[in-house]
Design a protein that fits this description.
Blueprint (H helix, E strand, L loop, with lengths): L2 H5 L17 E3 L9 E4 L12 H6 L4 E4 L9 E3 L3 H12 L8 E6 L4 H14 L4 E4 L4 E3 L2 E3 L8 H13 L4 E5 L2 H6 L9 E4 L7 H4 L2 H13 L12 E5 L4 H8 L3 E6 L6 E9 L2 E8 L2 E7 L4 H16 L4 H10 L8 E2 L7 E5 L4 H14 L4 E5 L10 H11 L2 E4 L9 H9 L10 E2 L3 H11 L5 E5 L6 E4 L2 E4 L2 H12 L1
Parallel strand pairs: 1-2, 2-3, 3-4, 5-9, 5-10, 6-9, 10-11, 11-12, 12-13, 17-21, 18-19, 18-21, 19-20
Antiparallel strand pairs: 6-7, 7-8, 13-14, 14-15, 16-17, 22-23
Length: 489
């Protein structure tokens, strides 16, 4: 694509009148620049892309997009905000790929990963070629790609959408984080369905207040647009039991469909029965009732299922297919995942890393635990510090044997993180242990457990690493637990 043609999409107040070069790729990493690339200088948290513009030019960049003039031998186009411009240019360069997909976005504090996997499974079982973008990986048809962020930056996102279109993908499902919404990573994404799971405390290290966190989430629904297309209707799927839904409803012009358990909703779950092996309930919408029997446990799982049913229904899939798919799902990696190695007690690994998610999981375990409930839990470093004492309080309130340990301490001192957790429970007559080494903590829980006990290892879920300082170490809660069980035999 010619540079001038590409830049037309920016609608610059002062049009570019320089040399019109052929652009073969768009990059914001100078190490990926090749002959013909447009290099975009992005100011990051730790590095400034402007410092690498000269290197990009030397590697063959045809032009540079920057926020200030640079003395280089290639054309330099100056804009006020390269991050916003990158989203527009990526959408144009890759020929607006999201418009060619049925795109479903899921946002919320908890449940995004499980809900996105459920929805993707429903569409795949219906015969659609699917794509998935989220915390665990990116899936393009049958190809899996590792991901670094829950929602990639706009350039990577549009590249992924283009690859999906080229691979014949029809329906794409993606997790949409509050960071991504606030930072504009999803600018240019043509969502057809936006799903809200719930809103509880998280990411206050970034958003500072719950009001700002909620505002960021509302952007997904506002960005569904302000027009009505009868051939391609847009839907906001909202949790009627969460107070934040009222704001999201006001934020969107799209058709609103609600789901819920306790409040009146368009799609509702009634007569919920839980056991150690799964959950049964009736889904009610219109004047009809449909029995559902899922291999997931807990009220939070019912919400995820309702959100998935709603997203599929507004996408015009038949209810029988939807329910059949959901009933066949055995689980999602690191989400209430059982570790079974022949032991006579239960070991569960879950991603619960917020106060609300930890409480939900522990309450669910209380429904079937016969004896003691162990919980091994920590809090990540360089993240929301205000939730640390809350996590400790919940662990002590709902488990009989809490063990506080390290999560991903990152640049923080693990012992200081644990002290902040302890501040929430000191002086309350709670009994707990502090074992900073995560492997040792998991091993101690396994050693102490007896028949009928339940161990919850919370916080990291599917992650296969632990970040200590600037180093990334191999660490998988599931493997560590399995090894501890084997050693005990």
């Amino acid at each position: 694509m010619k540079l001038k043609k590409l830049l037309e999409s920016l609608h610059l107040i002062i049009p570019y009148e320089g040399e019109d070069r052929e652009i073969t790729s768009i990059e914001n990493d100078n190490r990926k620049v090749q002959n013909g690339s447009l290099f975009i200088c992005i100011k990051g948290y730790t590095v400034d892309g402007h410092d690498f513009a000269e290197s990009a030019a030397a590697s063959g960049a045809a032009a540079i997009l920057a926020e200030r003039p640079l003395k280089l031998d290639v054309p330099v186009i100056v804009v006020n905000d390269t991050t916003r411009a990158m989203a527009v240019l990526a959408d144009t360069f890759f020929e607006q790929p999201s418009k060619k997909l049925h795109l479903i976005g899921i946002t919320g504090t908890n449940g995004k990963t499980t809900t996105s996997h459920m929805i993707e499974k429903i569409f795949a079982d219906y015969g659609r070629i699917t794509g998935l973008i989220g915390t665990m990986y990116t899936k393009i048809a049958d190809k899996l790609i590792e991901t670094k962020n829950t929602t990639p930056e706009s350039l990577t996102l549009q590249k992924n959408f283009k690859q999906m279109v080229d691979a014949g993908v029809e329906t794409a499902v993606m997790e949409v984080s509050s960071h991504a919404l606030d930072l504009g990573r999803v600018h240019g994404c043509d969502f057809d369905v936006a799903v809200f799971t719930n809103l509880t405390q998280d990411h206050l290290d970034y958003h500072k207040t719950m009001d700002e966190y909620q505002r960021a989430k509302s952007l997904l629904f506002a960005q569904l647009g302000n027009t009505f297309n009868q051939q391609k209707a847009k839907f906001a799927v909202l949790n009627a039991d969460d107070p934040a839904s009222s704001m999201f409803k006001r934020s969107t012009a799209a058709h609103v469909v609600t789901y819920g358990i306790d409040s009146k909703a368009d799609i509702q779950a009634e007569n919920i029965q839980m056991s150690a092996s799964g959950t049964e309930f009736e889904v009610v919408f219109g004047n009809r009732r449909y029995p559902v029997n899922i291999q997931f446990i807990g009220k939070f799982s019912v919400y995820n299922v309702l959100a998935s049913i709603s997203a599929a229904l507004v996408s015009e899939l038949p209810i029988e297919t939807i329910i059949h798919s959901l009933e066949s799902i055995k689980g999602v990696a690191g989400r209430f995942e059982l570790v079974q190695a022949g032991q006579d007690f239960t070991v569960i690994v879950d991603y619960a890393h917020t106060p609300d998610s930890l409480e939900n999981v522990l309450k669910t375990i209380q429904h079937f635990a016969q004896k003691k409930i162990f919980v091994v839990v920590g809090c990540g470093g360089d993240r929301d510090r205000t939730k640390r004492p809350l996590m400790a309080q919940i662990a002590c309130q709902y488990a009989t044997d809490p063990i506080f340990t390290s999560d991903n301490p990152r640049s923080e001192n693990p012992l200081e993180i644990l002290k902040e957790m302890e501040s929430g429970v000191q002086g309350r007559n709670y009994i707990y242990r502090v074992i900073p080494d995560r492997k040792e903590a998991i091993g101690e829980a396994v050693k102490q457990a007896t028949a009928g006990d339940v161990i919850l290892i919370a916080g990291k879920g599917h992650e296969t690493y632990q970040i200590i300082g600037s180093e990334v170490y191999d660490f998988d809660d599931r493997l560590v637990a399995r090894e501890a069980i084997e050693e005990r035999k």
